[in-house]
């Protein structure tokens, strides 16, 4: 038989199978008591669930189907209900006459909700898995329309990927890189139970010191089939969903494609971080992101959306969905297709390199882009120090409006975990530069973590051994903190106190700001923007409106998050009343807004003082 005929027969067989599948999908009965999320297509590669997961109120029976092309060959379906991948040895043989009762006997109870995870696969008579694994999560709750006030994400992976002593990512939480990424299935549900997307992906830990907390920050990445050297996962190169409603690209279109995103634990503002726990809120990073989107259109920020996470069926608390700013982010936002020419450098921290104030802890690494971008960027600082560059020449290297908004906003929110840390800069480094666009080749700062600001700490005001940056009340003199290496300090009152301890300018961010402020035109532009920021863009009432919006979404879930029990266990260093007081009390987020912003606030007061240093 000729090769052409063989190919033709194969195509005909495949078309017949597809037609059979299409017929079958229409015949799958819809369970009245289920989640209301039903399969839309019939997948030849993996079992099909009659209900694909979500929220439900009454017990129901799940049916699992596989195409006739498998059934006639004597294949069987095995499933698990503990998050593990099915095998014939540890799985349960599916009985089509009975189905799978949900929740049945195998479930996780969390805060009155019953969570069931079902994973199924097809096996041949040799015990070999055929095709791919299907995964779905079912959450029984008292009122599926109102139980949740934010999205719910279910993550399912083998327990060994988390807790194995040799290669589990939770056990070996210090380790980073591709080799510490594991396969995971993710389902994203809107707060009403509507399924946003469901697919296999990759999971790894995210962050710095917060990796040591019981609740981890997680990076979720879209991965194509075969990424983990196996075909049993049904991958894709992107998440095709509007994860952040209303998030727009630079051209005004709604962004519906993401290659990865972060589930963040709140960092310094986590309720389980310990230090000054009565001041923690889990809201600061998101609040700062919301405000920066209002006030800094020329600086890329990470969109924010709080969510509830279940990990292998266990309640994993509130995590913040954040955009991940990498070359794919730049490509998706600005439609830059030659990704290899998107240059990004970011600061890293290594506490084994000398002492805190030696200038060795913080340094740049190149995340993407051609050539040695770190060298190119830091050479600008060298030129500034040696007076080999003029302000006009600097404007050809940097987007000046980006600098103005970036520095002003970080100073506005008292982000003292910057400028010696948390710096990320990008530029287009390709040959096809376009003046008047972001492809002009100039450097642009991006916002990173901002959870240490907005009044998070006052420790440095009463603990002599505390790091100098741990004071971020509204009266923080952080202009002085930011420029301490380049100005002659006359007034040593207040905090942060920098007479003895101050961070060297190892990231050249201080000298760039100082250099710009010595230029009359820049100083005038910066001053005008700061006044607009505090009186028009983010006056106290606007800041509090943004805070109220986040609080309303998070507050109903916070009692569950604070005192998590069961599979994932931790206790917050606070309680609900203390937490609410940290948001709206006398020394709180709300009081920070009232005291920091406005025409009579500390921000304008200290900004005006800083301007006198350069006259």
Short summary:
The chain contains 15 helices and 25 strands. By secondary structure, the chain is of the alpha+beta class. It folds into three domains: 1-144, Immunoglobulin-like (Sandwich); 148-323 and 540-596, no CATH class; 345-539 and 599-615, no CATH class.
Indicate how many domains the architecture comprises: 3
H/I helix tally: 15
- Uncertain parts: 5-23
Beta-strand content: 15-25%
Work out the helicity level: 25-40%
**Which structural category fits the helices and strands?**
alpha+beta
Overall pLDDT, averaged? 92
Q: How much is the radius of gyration in Å?
A: 27 Å
Strand order of the largest sheet: 11-12-13-14-17-19-18
Question: What report would you give on this structure?
Answer:
- The chain is of the alpha+beta class.
- The chain has three domains: 1-144, Immunoglobulin-like, CATH 2.60.40; 148-323 and 540-596, no CATH class; 345-539 and 599-615, no CATH class.
- The protein is 28% helix and 21% strand.
- The protein has 15 helices and 25 strands.
- It has helices spanning 3-27, 68-71, 160-163, 284-295, 327-334, 373-385, 391-397, 400-412, 478-483, 509-517, 520-537, 540-562, 576-584, 589-596, 602-612; strands at residues 48-49, 54-56, 60-62, 64-65, 76-80, 92-93, 100-102, 108-110, 113-123, 129-140, 152-156, 182-189, 195-206, 217-222, 239-240, 257-258, 260-264, 304-311, 314-323, 342-349, 362-368, 424-428, 444-446, 563-564, 570-571.
- Strands 11-12-13-14-17-19-18 form a seven-stranded mixed beta barrel. Strands 2, 5, 6, 8, 9 and 10 form a six-stranded mixed sheet that branches. A four-stranded antiparallel sheet has the order 21-20-22-23.
- The protein is globular, with a radius of gyration of 27 Å.
- The termini are far apart.
- Residues 5-23 have low confidence and may be disordered.
């Amino acid at each position: 038989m000729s090769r052409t005929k063989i190919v033709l027969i194969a195509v005909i067989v495949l078309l017949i199978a597809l037609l059979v599948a299409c017929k079958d999908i229409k015949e799958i009965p819809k369970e009245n008591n289920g989640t209301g999320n039903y399969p839309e297509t019939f997948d030849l590669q993996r079992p099909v669930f009659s209900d694909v997961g979500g929220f439900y109120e009454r017990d129901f029976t799940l049916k699992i189907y596989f195409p006739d092309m498998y059934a006639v060959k004597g294949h069987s379906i095995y499933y698990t209900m503990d998050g593990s991948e099915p095998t014939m040895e540890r799985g349960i043989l599916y009985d089509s006459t009975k189905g799978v009762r949900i929740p049945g006997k195998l479930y996780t109870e969390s805060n009155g909700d019953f969570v069931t995870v079902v994973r199924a696969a097809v096996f041949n008579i040799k015990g070999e898995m055929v095709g791919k694994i299907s995964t779905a999560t079912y959450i029984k709750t008292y009122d599926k329309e109102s139980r949740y006030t934010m999205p719910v994400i279910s993550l399912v992976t083998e327990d060994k990927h988390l807790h194995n002593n040799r290669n589990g990512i939770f056990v070996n939480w210090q380790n980073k890189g591709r080799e510490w990424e594991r396969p995971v299935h993710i389902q994203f549900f809107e707060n009403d139970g509507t399924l946003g997307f469901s697919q296999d992906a990759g999971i790894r830990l995210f962050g710095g010191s917060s990796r040591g907390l019981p609740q981890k920050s997680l990076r979720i990445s879209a991965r194509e089939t075969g990424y983990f050297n196996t075909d049993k996962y049904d991958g894709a190169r992107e998440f095709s969903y509007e994860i952040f409603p209303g998030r727009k690209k630079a051209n005004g279109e709604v962004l519906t494609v993401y290659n990865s995103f972060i589930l963040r634990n709140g960092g310094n503002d986590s309720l389980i971080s310990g230090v000054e726990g009565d001041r923690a809120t889990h809201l600061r990073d998101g609040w700062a992101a919301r405000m920066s989107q209002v006030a800094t259109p020329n600086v890329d920020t990470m969109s924010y959306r709080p969510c509830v996470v279940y990990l292998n069926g266990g309640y994993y608390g509130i995590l913040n969905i954040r955009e991940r700013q990498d070359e794919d982010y730049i490509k998706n936002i600005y439609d830059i297709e030659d990704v290899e020419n998107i240059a990004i450098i970011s600061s890293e921290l290594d506490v084994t390199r000398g002492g805190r104030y030696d200038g060795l802890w913080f340094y740049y690494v190149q995340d993407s882009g051609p050539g040695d971008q770190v060298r190119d960027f830091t050479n600008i600082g060298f030129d500034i120090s040696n007076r080999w560059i003029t302000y006009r020449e600097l404007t050809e290297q940097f987007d000046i409006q980006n600098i103005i908004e970036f520095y002003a906003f970080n100073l506005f929110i008292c982000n003292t975990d910057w400028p010696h840390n948390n710096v990320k800069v990008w530029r287009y480094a390709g040959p096809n530069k376009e003046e008047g666009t972001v492809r002009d080749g100039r450097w642009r700062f991006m916002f990173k973590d901002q959870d240490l600001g907005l009044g998070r700490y006052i420790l440095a005001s009463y603990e002599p051994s505390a790091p100098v940056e741990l004071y971020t009340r509204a009266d923080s003199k952080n202009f002085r903190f930011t420029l301490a290496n380049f100005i002659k300090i006359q007034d040593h009152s207040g905090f942060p106190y920098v007479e003895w301890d101050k961070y060297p300018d190892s990231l050249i961010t201080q000298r760039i700001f100082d250099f710009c402020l010595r230029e009359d035109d820049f100083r005038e532009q910066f001053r005008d923007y700061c006044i607009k920021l505090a009186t028009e863009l983010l006056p106290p009432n606007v800041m509090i409106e943004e805070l109220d919006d986040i609080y309303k979404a998070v507050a109903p879930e916070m009692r569950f998050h604070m005192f998590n029990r069961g599979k994932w266990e931790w206790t917050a260093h606070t309680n609900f009343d203390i937490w609410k007081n940290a948001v709206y009390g006398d020394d709180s987020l709300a009081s920070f807004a009232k005291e920091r912003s406005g025409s009579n606030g500390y921000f304008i007061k200290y900004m005006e003082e800083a301007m006198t240093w350069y006259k």
